[in-house]
Specification:
Length: 295
């Protein structure tokens, strides 16, 4: 039996261990020993790009933001869909992930980082979205967590709270699209996104072409135009009455397993939408306070 070969490892800002592996010509990224993504289960990553960029084929110079580089399959599909004058920003929290793509994954999708249309932003995607100063995006594609209620990095809760929805809306052009990848169904998230000023559609996605069931979900939100100066509508703030949803069963760590697995609850505790809103507001006040003190 061919053993997994560990190619590289790194500690993320919250202390999680992210590792890169190779097995029989395929590559895998694991999070605390649990499979996060692989080169054999890429259907949903491609669909994320297909849905988010479906209106961009005929645009003269579309702008796209991808949250999470991973193994580069979403980036690959985006570059196939947009024209030669497109601008594609990829926000990746870990500089080591970028280096892995250049060094260990060059033959996978690493060469795409040299495409003149691509700019890598080594930064938290929430910060990139919230602090955007230049031209807004036509599409934002987010694939940074297991689900909107189960995060790879604890601070990612901000993306799925009111502050995150509002920041995404401001960062999008009128009628721009945001697409969220999720390992499983999250109907409450879709409702909250809709109440935050987006027209929402949910799409099922298989992990790989031979999968019997479409267990993953892509949540696509079209930004509804707001009158100048109008604030975001109130999002759903009712606490969830159900426990943290585990991603669909049948996700072994071994070869051929589906793309992502449920994290241990102790590592990624679920918080209600109300709690997430509170955390996001505290984060925003802290940032504003720092800015005021500097002035």
């Amino acid at each position: 039996m061919i053993a997994f070969k560990t190619l590289a490892k790194v500690r993320s800002p919250d202390g999680s261990m992210i590792t890169l592996h190779e097995h029989d010509g395929e590559h895998y990224i694991k999070h605390n020993g649990r499979q996060l993504m692989s080169t054999i289960a890429t259907v949903s990553e491609l669909l994320l790009a297909d849905l988010g960029c479906r209106e961009l084929r005929e645009m003269p110079k579309p702008r796209v933001l991808i949250g999470g580089l991973g193994l580069g399959f979403t980036l690959k599909r985006v570059l196939e869909l947009v024209g030669e004058n497109a601008v594609v920003h990829v926000s990746e929290l870990l500089p080591e992930m970028v280096e892995w793509n250049r060094e260990h994954l060059e033959k996978v999708n690493g060469l795409l980082l040299k495409d003149p249309r691509v700019e890598i932003l080594v930064e938290d995607v929430f910060k990139v979205i919230r602090e955007l100063k230049g031209e807004r995006y036509d599409a934002i594609l987010l694939d940074v967590d297991h689900t909107p209620a189960s995060w790879v990095q604890v601070q990612n809760h901000r993306l799925y709270a009111r502050a995150g929805f509002d920041a995404v809306h401001r960062a999008l052009k009128p009628h721009g699209l945001v697409a969220y990848w999720s390992a499983g169904e999250e109907p409450e998230f879709a409702l909250r996104l809709g109440r935050a000023g987006f027209q929402v559609q949910t799409y099922e996605a298989k992990a790989h072409t031979t999968a019997k069931r479409a267990v993953h979900r892509i949540y696509l939100g079209a930004a509804k135009p707001r009158p100048e100066g109008e604030s975001a509508p109130k999002a759903d703030r009712k606490p969830s009455r159900r426990p943290t949803p585990a991603p669909p069963s049948g996700r072994p760590n071994g070869i051929g397993g589906r793309r992502r697995q449920a994290p241990k609850p102790v590592q990624h505790p679920f918080i209600s939408p109300r709690q997430a809103e509170g955390l996001a507001r505290k984060e925003l006040r802290r940032a504003e306070s720092k800015g005021a003190s500097k002035r």
